[in-house]
Amino acid sequence: EKGGYDHYMIKEIHEQPTAIRQILECHGSGELTDLDPGTLEGVEEVQFVACGTSYHAALYGSYVFAERGIPASTHLASEYATHERPVGEGMLVVAVTQSGETADTLAAIETAQRAGARTLAVTNVVGSSASRVCDDALYIRAGPEIGVAATKTFSSQVVALSLFADRLAGEDSPGGPVAFDSLPWGIQRILDTSRSRDVAERYRGRDAFFFIGRGVGYPVALEGALKFKEISYEHAEGFAAGELKHGPLALVTPASVVFAVFTGRDDEKLLGNVREAQTRGATVVAITDGTNEEVLRQADDVLFVPESEPAVAGLLANVQLQLISYHAAALLGRPIDKPRNLAKSVTVE
Ligand code: F6R
Questions:
Q1: Is 344 a catalytic residue?
Q2: Which residues form the SIS domain (predicted)?
């Protein structure tokens, strides 16, 4: 059932090229096959509500929305539900939830509906509670995900939200559709060539693992840290790179490893943050396509991704970070598919 893999997590990491092809085939032609045409009428603004990995995917999505000129904000579902927000006519509240059963997210939907908002579920599970409660549902079609750590569904959520942004953006909107055509190939290339196991081995036993990025590299940093702590039980934190100097830098020592997510945008600023960490003795592993020589010179270690536009580069970097977490946890003999204290769907608030 694990198709020859040791764990569902690594199987599902390897399923990403197929999962992405599935969603592009289904929704990639500019139409979103699941949605009633009326669903998007008059939508001018979007609020995302989500938890955990889905929150990171939504945050990533909100950068893509902003680039297309569509105002979007991302909210932790558990916080959204604590107070009602004003929702105007053109507001759509989008619940991003793999399982469609997360209690915090369902509570946020209820809060939004009470305030009069229209709601949409972006989910992997047909017939899930979120898909039934929301006015409409968009399915990410990643196939079943069994490992507790969400992997392929993060990638599919980001692609789904980007296709959704394309659909919402008018003809004269800024930017253009993100070109995901080469994403399955890019992910496959990483799966075939990643040095992540060696890197995980090299830094095994370090005190702390930090993840930093800017733009879409920020949600990827948050997601990298969540995955790492979740399955390896090591101390891991993700930060917006610019925030390092506002506090977290106090944690950085020669026993720290910092993973820096380079996407091709704001690389110079991120390099500045890398130097800040190195000055405190940390080892920096850059996730990069290698086209910026300064990054290659400055980094202590490198994990490569194929060259692509920033909105795709973040997803590719995320795959390298999924692999790092997996190998770090495997080297420590952790129960990767069922980490302690965690459940696949969290049905209590
Ligand atoms: C982390 C993880 C969780 C979920 C979160 C939301 O690997 O899987 O953080 O992302 O519990 O779950 P869904 O997406 O089902 O609402």
A1: yes
A2: 35-174, 199-339
Report helix, strand or coil for 297.
Answer: helix
Question: Which ipTM score applies to this complex?
Answer: 0.99
Tell whether ligand 1 has an atom less than 6 A from the beta carbon of residue 22. no
- CB 345 near ligand 1, within 6 Å: yes
CB of 346 sitting under 6 A from ligand 1:
yes
Residue 59 C-alpha to ligand 1 middle, in angstroms?
A: 14
CA distance 245 to 43: 38
Q: Which atom of ligand 1 is nearest to the CA of 151?
A: 7
Show the tokens assigned to 302.
Answer: 């490198």
pLDDT grade for 161, boundaries at 50, 70 and 90: very high
Q: Which of 2, 229, 338, 344 is catalytic?
A: 344
According to the model, what pLDDT value does residue 60 have? Answer: 98
Residues 6+ apart with CB under 8 A from 213: 219, 220, 221, 240, 241, 260, 261, 262, 263, 270, 314, 317
Is residue 321 classed as helix, strand or coil in its secondary structure? helix
Per-residue burial over 267-286, b if 16 or more Cβ lie within 10 Å, else e, is beebbebbebbbeeebbbbb
What integer pLDDT is reported at residue 235 of this predicted model?
98
Among candidate residues 94, 84, 9, 97, the one with its CA nearest the CA of residue 52:
97
pLDDT of residue 40: 83
pTM beyond 0.95, yes or no: yes
pLDDT of residue 31 exceeding 80: no
| Residues 329, 188, 305, 75, CA torsion sign | negative
Mutation pick for ligand 1 pocket among 49, 53, 145 (CB with most ligand atoms within 8 Å): 53
Atom number, ligand 1, closest to the C-alpha of residue 123: 14
Reported as a single tens digit per residue, the pLDDT across 63-101 is 999 999 999 999 999 999 888 788 888 999 999 999 999
Report yes or no: 220 and 261 within 8 Å, Cβ to Cβ.
yes
Tell me the mean pLDDT in the region 31-58. 90
